[in-house]
Amino acid sequence: MPSPSVRRLTMTAISNSLSLKQGFSLARPRTPFLTRTPPSSASVKFTRCYAAFANENREYVIVGGGNSAGYAARTFVEHGMADGRLCIVTKEPYAPYERPALTKAYLFPPDKKPARLPGFHTCVGSGGERQTPEWYKENGIEMLYEDPVKDIDIEKQTLTTSSGKLLKYGSLIIATGCTASRFPEKIGGNLPGVHYIREVADADALILSLEKAKKVVVVGGGYIGMEVAAAAVGWKLDTTIIFPEDHLLQRLFTPSLARRYEELYQKNGVKILKGASIKNLEAGSNGHVAGVKLGDGSIVEADTVIIGIGAKPAVSPFERVGLNTDVGGIQVDGLFRTSTPGIFAVGDVAAFPLKIYDRVARVEHVDHARRSAQHCVKALLSAQTHTYDYLPHFYSRVFEYEGSPRKVWWQFFGDNVGETVEIGNFDPKIANFWIESGKLKGVLLESGSPEEFQLLPKLARSQPLIDKAKLQNATSVEEALEIARGSLQGEAAV
Question: What is the pTM of this model?
């Protein structure tokens, strides 16, 4: 009678052999899109040579360590397909975590109850179980830490890591997310005291700088810039935001809405330089960053600079899988399948069909990271065939540290196209409605109640016809939302 470990090894080998011969896991529905040419007998012999591979669990491999990887792992567990079948490869030393925390509560000063791991491992961001490293062990999920994938052999279905490990996969989910856009080295982008935030190590390095900082400059007026600047206020630091656009968060906020937030930041002592170009970052005599030189030649002093100018999809080394040159990222269909059978892409890195608006999109937001991972794995493991039907959702939370005079939390659903109607005075509420061809296309609400926030996705998905004049005459945010709710009910009656 063989020992339990031998029996498990034998069954795993049989399972991998069957999986490879069938193309995918036996649990996966077969469709023409997924059909794969059977491997040659030589490659089958190669896959049975256990000494050649560093991962014991090779039926499914996830590359990445952020939100998508964590939510995908949970979905595998929910389907009973993780134990002894799933391997996750990440370049970080941590189990998957809720990355948005890094530019919010993680940056709070020590006396403001900052967030720390294991407090924000996935899937706590959506109210789920906290998946600590022990959780992965208990569920039989193999974790390979601090070893990013550097190469892929599509024909042999193998990955090579930076340490030289060779990993086998039956099905591969690419969940590599994005990397921060950086300033070139020639203009000071790598000077000591210059920071970018995508990982825990980045946030830790920034905290060390904030502990000693006196003057902070945040470059970028988007999500990262606004969140980091708000956190810096908690440290009581001289803080300046610099960006080239006309107002904060220009890709979403209207000029009027942005002005409200800019006034809030200025009341908190943040200086705002908009419409400003940056020539280079200046170094002091000690080689450390000392200032930001603007296009007009003036210099803004700084001993800490945070760059938040966007991000790029981390597609290397998966370019061969098939990229979308318009929106960036890896092209997938409505089930997150790439053009290469057996390979999927989810989260920030996926260029997917945005069904509701009939266009291809790539969304860098935690909500999509979670939902895309869950949809992909359900399609992979079950008979689910309906395509991903995502409703764009963005939010931000700032000034949430202990003792803050005003905690800010807004949510947006839908598409910011057409004309806008703004209701409210931002004290404490404000709402923006986007209307195109008489239909309500998108809505943003600041400081809403849970019930009000729950109404927003219903409005954005239904896109009801709405009386713009009636909406404009609303005397409060509550009245405007009731008008919108009424249009929703009217649409249902028709």
Answer: 0.87
